User: Which sequence fits this backbone?
C-alpha cells in the first residue's frame, strides 16, 4: 500500500495525480509538493522499523511515492555526518557537523533525487527522462537513466565545468549545450516535456524533492533522533533547500523529532537573488550578471524554480539567507581539505565559508548543533582549484629524495 496521495500546489491548492508528467502547477507555475496520509503512516512506520534496513534513501520507502517493484538504485544516501575537528576549534564551536553528500554514487546529493525520479518514470511507463542542469544533476540523471534503460536528454549551459560534462557524456545521454542562462534552459525543457512527453527530473521536480528530503531523515537518525539547531544549505534554484526542510517537517509531523531546525540559505555574492529578496523584504528579481566560481549555486532567476518557496520557508519559520564572496568560498574549500580531509566543490564549501559572517552577525551560537550540507565532490570542478595548489617537488636522484625526506621530518 502506498501512502502518497497526490501532488499539490502550495499556493493555489490545485492537485495533480502522482503519475502526472506535470512538475509545476499549470495554474500559477509554482512547484508541486507530494502530500501523504500522515495519520495512516503513524501506524505503520517507527524508529524501530527503519533500523533493520540498509542506511540509505530507500530505508524510508513508506515515505517515498514509488512502488517497491520498480526501484532503480545505485545505493545512494547513507552518507556520513562528520563531526568537525579543526574548524570547530578555529571558531570555537562545540557541535559542528558536515553532512558529506559527495559520497553518493556520482558525487553529489542529486543522486537521492535521481533514484526516486527515475524509479517513478519507470513506474508510469515513461520512455525518456530529461533535465536542464548546471552539471551535477546532468551526470546524476544520466547514470540512473542508464541503469534503468531509459533514454535521457540533457540541456546544459555553455561554460559548464568540463569535469561535469565529461562525467555526463560517459553515460551516453543526448546532451545539448546552449548559449542560454539556466532559467531559459529550464523553460525550454518544460516546453519539450509538454510537447513530447519527456519526464522531467529537475532540481525542484516533486520526485527529486522526495528523494532529497531523506538528507534530513538521516541527519535526525545520526544525531540520535534529534533535529539540529541550525542547518546551512548552499542554494541555487531552491529545490534542495525545500527538500531538506520537507524532510524535517515530515519527521516532526510523525513525532520522530520534537523541534524543527532553523534553516540558513547561503549563496555566492556573485549570484544571490534569494538573499537579496530576503534581506529587502520584497519579491525575487532576476540577478543581472551572475558571476561566481560556485557554478552549482548560480541560478540567476530562481523564481522560475523553487525560489519563492524558499522565501516562504525562511520568512514563516525564522530562517536566514546570507551570501559569501568567491574568495572566501575558495579559501574554505582549501581549509576543508587541509584541516578536515574533505575535498568538495566550491558550492559545497559555501555552507562552511559563511560561518564567520553568521557568527559576527549573531545569527548562530557556538553552543548550537550546526550541520553544514556539503553538496558535491571537488572532483566536479578541478579548474576552480588550480591557483590554490602547487606543483610536485621535482628531484633528480635517490640521494636527494632521502635528504629531502630527512629535512621534511625535522
Assistant:
Amino acid at each position: 500500500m502506498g501512502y502518497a496521495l497526490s501532488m499539490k500546489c502550495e499556493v493555489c491548492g490545485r492537485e495533480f495525480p502522482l503519475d502526472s508528467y506535470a512538475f509545476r502547477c499549470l495554474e500559477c507555475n509554482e512547484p508541486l509538493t507530494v502530500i501523504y496520509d500522515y495519520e495512516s503512516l503513524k501506524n505503520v512506520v517507527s524508529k524501530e522499523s527503519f533500523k533493520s534496513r540498509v542506511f540509505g534513501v530507500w530505508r524510508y520507502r513508506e515515505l517515498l511515492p514509488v512502488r517497491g517493484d520498480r526501484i532503480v538504485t545505485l545505493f545512494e544516501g547513507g552518507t556520513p555526518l562528520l563531526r568537525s575537528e579543526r574548524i570547530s576549534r578555529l571558531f570555537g564551536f562545540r557541535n559542528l557537523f558536515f553532512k558529506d553528500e559527495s559520497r553518493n554514487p556520482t558525487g553529489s546529493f542529486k543522486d537521492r533525487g535521481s533514484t526516486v525520479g527515475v524509479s517513478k518514470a519507470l513506474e508510469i511507463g515513461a520512455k525518456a527522462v530529461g533535465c536542464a542542469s548546471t552539471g551535477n544533476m546532468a551526470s546524476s540523471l544520466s547514470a540512473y537513466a542508464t541503469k534503468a534503460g531509459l533514454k535521457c536528454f540533457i540541456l546544459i549551459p555553455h561554460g559548464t565545468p568540463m569535469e561535469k560534462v565529461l562525467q555526463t557524456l560517459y553515460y551516453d545521454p543526448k546532451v545539448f549545450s546552449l548559449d542560454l542562462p539556466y532559467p531559459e534552459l529550464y523553460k525550454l525543457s518544460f516546453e519539450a516535456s509538454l510537447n513530447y512527453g519527456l519526464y522531467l527530473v529537475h532540481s525542484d521536480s516533486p520526485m527529486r524533492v522526495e528523494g532529497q528530503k531523506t538528507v534530513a531523515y538521516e541527519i535526525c537518525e545520526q544525531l540520535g533522533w534529534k533535529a539540529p539547531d541550525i542547518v546551512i544549505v548552499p542554494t541555487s534554484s531552491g529545490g534542495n533547500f525545500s527538500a531538506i526542510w520537507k524532510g524535517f517537517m515530515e519527521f516532526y509531523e510523525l513525532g520522530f523529532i520534537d523541534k524543527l531546525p532553523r534553516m540558513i540559505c547561503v549563496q555566492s555574492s556573485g549570484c544571490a537573488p534569494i538573499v537579496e529578496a530576503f534581506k529587502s523584504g520584497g519579491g525575487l528579481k532576476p540577478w543581472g550578471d551572475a558571476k561566481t566560481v560556485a557554478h552549482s549555486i548560480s541560478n540567476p532567476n530562481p523564481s522560475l524554480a523553487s525560489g519563492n518557496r524558499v522565501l516562504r520557508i525562511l520568512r514563516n519559520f525564522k530562517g536566514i539567507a546570507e551570501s559569501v564572496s568567491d574568495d572566501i568560498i575558495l579559501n574554505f574549500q582549501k581549509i576543508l581539505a587541509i584541516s578536515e580531509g574533505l575535498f568538495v566543490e566550491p558550492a559545497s564549501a559555501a555552507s562552511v565559508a559563511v560561518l564567520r559572517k553568521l557568527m559576527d552577525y549573531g545569527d548562530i551560537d557556538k553552543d548550537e548543533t550546526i550541520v553544514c550540507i556539503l553538496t558535491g565532490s571537488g572532483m566536479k570542478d578541478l579548474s576552480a582549484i588550480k591557483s590554490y595548489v602547487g606543483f610536485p617537488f621535482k628531484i633528480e636522484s635517490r640521494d636527494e629524495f632521502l635528504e629531502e625526506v630527512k629535512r621534511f621530518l625535522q
Q: What stands out?
A: The mean pLDDT is 93. The chain is about 40% helix and 15% strand. Residues 204 and 369 are 27 Å apart (CA to CA).
